[in-house]
Amino acid sequence: MLSIKNLHASIEGKEILKGIDLEVKPGEVHAIMGPNGSGKSTLASVLAGRELFEVTEGKVKYFGKDLFDLSPEERASEGIFLGFQYPIEIPGVSMVNFMKTAVNEQRKHKGLEPMSSSDFLKLMREKKELVELDAALANRSVNEGFSGGEKKRNEIFQMAMLEPKLSILDETDSGLDIDALRIVANGVNKLKSADNATIVITHYQRLLDYIVPDYVHVLYNGKIIKSGGKDLALELEEKGYDWLKKGETV
Amino acid sequence: MEKDQDKILNEVTQGEYKYGFVTDIEAESIPKGLNEDVVRMISQKKNEPEFMLEFRLKAFRHWQTLKMPEWAHLKIPEIDYQDIIYYSAPKQKPKLESMDDVDPELKETFDKLGIPLDEQKRLAGVAVDAVMDSVSVKTTFKENLAELGIIFCSFSEAVQEHPDLVKKYMGSVVPYTDNYFAALNSAVFSDGSFCYIPKGVRCPMELSTYFRINAANTGQFERTLIVADDDSYVSYLEGCTAPQRDENQLHAAIVEIVAMRNSEVKYSTVQNWYPGDKNGKGGIYNFVTKRGKCAGENSKISWTQVETGSAVTWKYPSCILLGDNSSGEFYSVAVTNNHQQADTGTKMIHIGKNTKSVIVSKGISAGFSENSYRGLVKVVKNAKNARNFSQCDSLLLGDKCGAHTFPYIEVDNKDSVVEHEATTSKIGEDQIFYCNQRGIKTEDAIGLIVNGYAKEVLNKLPMEFAVEAQKLLQISLEGSVG
Ligand SMILES: Nc1ncnc2c1ncn2[C@@H]1O[C@H](COP(=O)(O)OP(=O)(O)O)[C@@H](O)[C@H]1O
Ligand SMILES: [Mg+2]
User: Fold this and answer.
1) What's the maximum distance between 2 C-alpha atoms anywhere in chain A?
2) In 3D, which of B60, B63, B80, B226 has the Cα closest to residue B155?
3) Which of A56, A168, B437, B474 sits at a 20 to 30 Å CA gap from B346?
């Protein structure tokens, strides 16, 4: 579904992504790991279409389409979901209103009628339960005054509402205690199917105890320097990144 | 990053004005210019009693001694008061027996504006006084209201039918000596609405006046007077639009409200005069004096305004809190885009004991516009226990626009509490991207964010108009994204 070839991207003239190759097929879970500042969030942003970053080289195909021909909102409607590392606050806009607008915009894109209020509220209730989101949060403004953990859980809630084909979860585990981690991972696992895929960006191997990846990639200094199976994560946990970094300079 | 943000905002903040059409209707106008004869002519055309002419002449003579105020944060080219037509009325049959007598052109105009004057199509639960240029065209539901003793009619009609009430209250809140534009209005005002709610009556429907400027080179000077007697209640709404023209047009209105013991008046405005084009050409100069007097104890006056139009706005709906335990509120959203300028706010004058006031002002600036909040909270010596809370927020869309806050606080009573809070924020590129990533287009994202920001004020509007106002906010900021 997603095919990244030699992707380069920069910000303010500084190259951050330096030739990324990655293939993601339906049903797969990919984990991207790597030290701070490697470019993990940049990769996620570029895939989601943030204009801040300039793509200087390379191609990305998404279900056969050139990804860069699509605007950020088109990508979203075509099923790309980004769980933000730092979810944004939008004061005064209730989660209900925000989600209703998002769901109906995406439906419009697919040529569907807007959802009726009662169907929508039913869907909200269902998905809130799935991620064990406090009912009161949905009536508050988007992310405003949410704790770090609540914000992350709210990202997974939105993912559940929008039922994406490709979810990119950027450090959704950081800042979560073990219970919250379990809930978030459960949510992701329940939403998993043979038709959709997930890219989990994480720092720690512990999330991967709950969400078992098919592939693990190490991103370092804008490049994927090693790929492997789920055991690679364990190896990284044990040895850190240094042995790989050394390998890269050779 | 800054650049990106600006690009997005530039694209979205260039909406088109949707009410810019002109109705081709024969009008009866007097020649351009202003002098005593013109004042007399206006009074004569309206067949006014002597006291009205005297009032006008006194005001005119006073106006001649005044200079245009310069203290506002506004750049206004000099206005040539001799180059304006002071009276213009759409020609129609002299007496309106039924709706069939209203000129079809006029009916169509108001239909297009979403203000049906037809019996069948009337807005449910809303009585409308439709004013075009200098005269009131039609007031709906008048008879139904009369059964409750409520008087709702054009100002001209009130002068004829209820001269005692007019004489008693006109100028009692805004004297003609108040300021430059109040003096001008008092001299040449043409029409407007009059409303009287008798003792103990709760007005069962929204009363509203819809002002439309149509004729070219014409000033609009309307005057509204609302009197709420003891234990009464009324909610009032004012809307306005004007055609798209290259010249600036002057609008200088007066609204006076008198609230007696235990009465409550809610006054809401959705102001959408033509704001001028993208380059700042044309548009209405809106210089308005609005003031309410809480004359009786426990009375309450609440102003809610959504200001999106006009090239220049100069307006401070105020409350004089005379009665003990009376309260005043001011809720405002003012949007400026392109080259619009707004200097708006309120005055809360605490005179009675235990008087309360709340000010919530939300400014939104885009393009090259300037948006100022100017507010005065004054507590006189004997106003024991007065309370005020003010919240003034500014939201910036882009970095070529300005937002300014000028709060003036004068407290002469030591038991009083006056609180003021102010914030300035920017719509961030990150907020827009977050919405985009969920499938929401940039235009809609800005609409969502702006409406969220203004929610506290929009919630104060009568329900029928809140939705309208939300759309209007978005339209005044939207444009071609792509
Ligand atoms: N908005 C930005 N402006 C300038 N530099 C940025 C910006 N965002 C990220 N970078 C730089 O790009 C590099 C990669 O950052 P990021 O993708 O956030 O890494 P990771 O998510 O792997 O920690 C870092 O050197 C960071 O400083
Ligand atoms: Mg990151």
Assistant:
1) 61
2) B226
3) B474
A73-120 pLDDT, tens digit each: 999 999 999 999 999 999 989 999 999 999 999 999 999 999 998 899
- The answer to whether B362 and B454 are in contact (CB under 8 A) is yes
Backbone dihedral region for residue B187 (phi beyond 0: left; psi -120 to 50: alpha; all else: beta) = alpha
Task: For B329-346, write each residue's pLDDT tens digit.
Answer: 999 998 888 888 888 899
CB-nearest to B4 from A52, A87, A105 is A52
Contact in structure between B399 and B1 (CB atoms under 8 Å): no
Is the CB of residue A39 below 6 angstroms from any atom belonging to ligand 1? yes
Tokens standing for B74? 């506004």
State if pTM tops 0.90: no
Long-range contacts of B71-77 (CB under 8 A, 24+ apart): B72/B314, B72/B343, B72/B372, B72/B374, B73/B341, B73/B343, B73/B370, B73/B372, B73/B374, B73/B404, B73/B406, B74/B312, B74/B314, B74/B341, B74/B343, B74/B370, B75/B341, B76/B285, B76/B312, B76/B341, B77/B248
Angle at the Cα of B208 (from B202 to B214), degrees rounded to 5? Answer: 165
Q: Which long-range contacts (CB under 8 A, 24 or more apart) does B155-161 make?
A: B155/B189, B155/B191, B155/B192, B155/B193, B155/B194, B155/B222, B155/B223, B155/B224, B155/B225, B156/B46, B156/B191, B157/B194, B158/B194, B158/B225, B159/B46, B159/B48, B159/B49, B159/B52, B160/B47
Cβ proximity of B348 and B380 under 8 Å: no
> What ligand 1 atom has the least distance to the C-alpha of A36?
23
Q: Which residues of chain B have pLDDT under 70?
A: 1-27, 90-107, 109-127, 131-139, 213-217, 240-246, 464, 475-476, 478-482
- CB contacts < 8 A, A to B, total 80
Do B452 and A101 count as a contact with CB atoms less than 8 A apart? no
Nearest residue to B351 via CA among B318, B325, B376:
B325
Domains, chain A, in order of start with CATH, read 2-247 (3.40.50.300)
- Using DSSP's 3-state secondary structure scheme, residue B370 falls into strand
* Spatial separation of the C-alpha atoms in residues B287 and B252, rounded to whole Å: 5
Mutation target to probe the A interface, by most A beta carbons within 10 A, among B433, B449, B456 is: B433
* Token couple for B329: 């509120």
- What is the C-alpha to C-alpha distance for residues B433 and A71, in angstroms, rounded to an integer? 11
Query: B439–A71: do the CB atoms touch at under 8 Å?
Result: no
Please list, residue by residue across B330-355, b when 16 or more beta carbons sit within 10 angstroms of its beta carbon and e when fewer do: bbbbbbbbbbbbbbbbbbbbbbbbbb
What are the DSSP calls for B333-346, one per residue? Answer: EEEE-TT-EEEEEE
Check: complex ipTM more than 0.90: yes
- Using an 8 Å CB-CB cutoff, list chain B residues near A50: 433
User: In terms of DSSP bridges, do strands B126-132 and B151-154 run parallel, antiparallel, or are they unpaired?
Assistant: unpaired
| Tokens describing residue A179 | 């219970």
CB contact under 8 A, A48 and B4: no
Please indicate whether residue A202, judged by its CB atom, sits closer than 6 Å to ligand 1: no
Cα–ligand 2 centroid distance for A36 (angstroms): 7
Mutational test site, ligand 1, from A41, A85, A168, max ligand atoms within 8 Å of CB: A41
Query: Which ranges of A110-240 does DSSP label H, i.e. alpha helix?
Result: 117-130, 148-162, 178-191, 231-239
